[in-house]
Amino acid sequence: MKPGDELPPLTVPVTRTLIVAGAIASRDYQDVHHDAELARQKGSPDIFMNILTTNGLVGRYVTDHFGPRARLRKVAIRLGAPNHPGDTMTLTGTVTAVDGDTATVRITGANRLGDHVTGTVTVTVTGAGTVNGTGVATGAGS
């Protein structure tokens, strides 16, 4: 991994089920994440994804790319355009810095309205022959 490396895009179909399940899983019971009529009464055309679901999708995007040895160290995101049912969000990322086994990745998740999420993720990828978080040597011969 080196600065300038691009992660392959990940397309996420934004379904009503994804939005509601993400809100429930993160214990976010705000009506705008599960009740379309109340969301409309509050000025939204439909329910919309919460930040915790977005945060989880960003984390998944990075760890899926870097593999099972990837450990998220910091996730700093900002929401923009909402994700509504029927949207498709495409996540893209570019490595902006590398320090040893730690990389900073600039992330964007866009939908038909614009950027839903922007931010950076710091990820450490433990290499072969290093010691993992449990104190057990990993890599060849261990």
Describe this entry's structure for a reader.
With 142 residues, this protein is α+β, with helices and mostly antiparallel strands. A hairpin with a 2-residue loop joins strand 3 and strand 4 (102-111). A five-stranded antiparallel sheet has the order 1-3-4-5-2, with helices on one face. It has helices at residues 16-25, 36-41, 51-66, and strands spanning 6-13, 70-79, 88-99, 102-111, 114-125. It is built from three helices and five strands. The longest helix is centred in the middle third of the chain and has 16 residues, at 51-66.
Tell me the span between the first and last alpha carbons: 24 Å
Low-confidence spans: pLDDT under 50, at least 5 residues? 128-142
Strand tally is: 5
Helical coverage, percent range: 10-25%
Question: The biggest beta sheet, please?
Answer: 5 strands, antiparallel
> Radius of gyration from the CA trace?
17 Å
In terms of structural class, how would the helical and strand content be classed?
alpha+beta
- Shape, principal axes of CA atoms: elongated
The mean pLDDT is: 90
Helices and strands, in N-to-C order? Answer: EHHHEEEE
Q: If strands are numbered along the chain, what order do they take across the biggest sheet?
A: 1-3-4-5-2
| Number of separate helices | 3
- Indicate the proportion of strand residues: 35-45%
Short description:
The protein has 142 residues and is of the alpha+beta class.
Keywords:
142 residues, alpha+beta, five-stranded antiparallel beta sheet, 3 helices, 5 strands, elongated, disordered C terminus
